[in-house]
Amino acid sequence: MTRLTQAQVDERLDSLAKWTQSGDSIQRTYVLKDFSQAMTFVNAVAQEAERVQHHPDILVRWNKVSLTLSTHDAGGITEKDLAFAVAADKLGASHKAK
After folding, report:
1. 1 pLDDT exceeds 90?
2. Per-residue model confidence (pLDDT) at position 54
């Protein structure tokens, strides 16, 4: 997996609402109804991460779940991170995350 150029990252982030770049990572915070719903969402993200063998950093703060993605082997953001962001957004939508 090769690291994307800044122009490629910028272009892809334009189509990923609420995802932002922070250094060599992309991140987004999802807001759910309550802690229980947040944990249900986290479990769905974990299952997807295992399925594709790409694991985000996950931070839970009551009803907020922040995901941070970076491909450490490539030293930055790759297509794998952006593909996982799309999958996470689909999971978020199915869990009624904002």
Report:
1. no
2. 95
